[in-house]
Amino acid sequence: MKKEKLIVGVVQQSNIDSVNDNCKLLERNIRDCADKGAELVVLQELHNSLYFCQHETVDYFDLAETIPGPSTEFYGAIAKELGIVLVTSLFEKRAPGLYHNTAVVFEKDGSLAGKYRKMHIPDDPGFYEKFYFTPGDMGFEPIVTSVGKLGVLVCWDQWYPEGARLMALKGAEVLIYPTAIGWDINDTSDEQERQLGAWTISQRAHAVSNGLPVIVANRTGHESDPTGNSDGIKFWGNSFIAGPQGEILASAPSNEHCNIIQEIDLKRSEDVRRIWPFLRDRRIDAYGNIVKRYID
């Protein structure tokens, strides 16, 4: 029988330069979400470590691991013990010299339900991800779990409507974005507000245009630039859960550790799509040029 209600937990935390300590804190937060009834728990992007992409050095490739590997054993065991579906975000070593930014989903029995390799890879000051990650090659495929079909994407993917749409067209029942995004400390407060607003609006728009709930887990806290060339990144938190009309159901503050718990009504997607039949009215006969880089 298809699930109609789902209690979701989102973990928002700041990290330190100790993978072991970060994982211990993550485990406590996951357990807290489960204790509060969460059946699905979502973690932030690259949650085991500091966000290492602020600069380029080959030493950070040592953080990567195979899938399956130590982290999948660790998080799989937690998912099994607590009986939850768990969405994680790992630095995957696929082969020598070949690495991905990969979301891994665990089923309630601790098994690997599936994974998604981040498709859109940024290369901006403080976010030098192209040095570390090969773009994903698994496409936009929902991951089938006991709590529904999960359209899992990762961070920079959240700015692209095409990924969300393809997940929706393939039957995703919820869109999920593990994230690591923040401010340049030297930006003005007005600019910071504009960036945060654009980020929130973009993902709420995915909810509206696809008639699906959206779950976003971002990190928080300041992480310094190890090179000293910049003042680092102040991750802006604001993790949230939105309903299929883009309505905010639950949200976290910008600068605090926070686990948010929210029940979402999966049946509402059907109700919303009946009054806003965007999928029905798509002009698929006229969209051929969408696959071009630019239309002259």
UniProtKB/TrEMBL annotation:
The keyword Hydrolase applies. Gene3D superfamilies: Carbon-nitrogen hydrolase. InterPro entries: Aliph_Amidase/BUP, C-N_Hydrolase, C-N_Hydrolase_sf. It comes from the Bacteria. One of its GO terms (molecular function) is hydrolase activity. Residues 6-266 form the CN hydrolase domain. The lineage of its organism: Bacteria, Pseudomonadati, Bacteroidota, Bacteroidia, Marinilabiliales. This is Carbon-nitrogen hydrolase. It holds the Pfam family CN_hydrolase. Keywords: Hydrolase. It comes from Carboxylicivirga linearis.
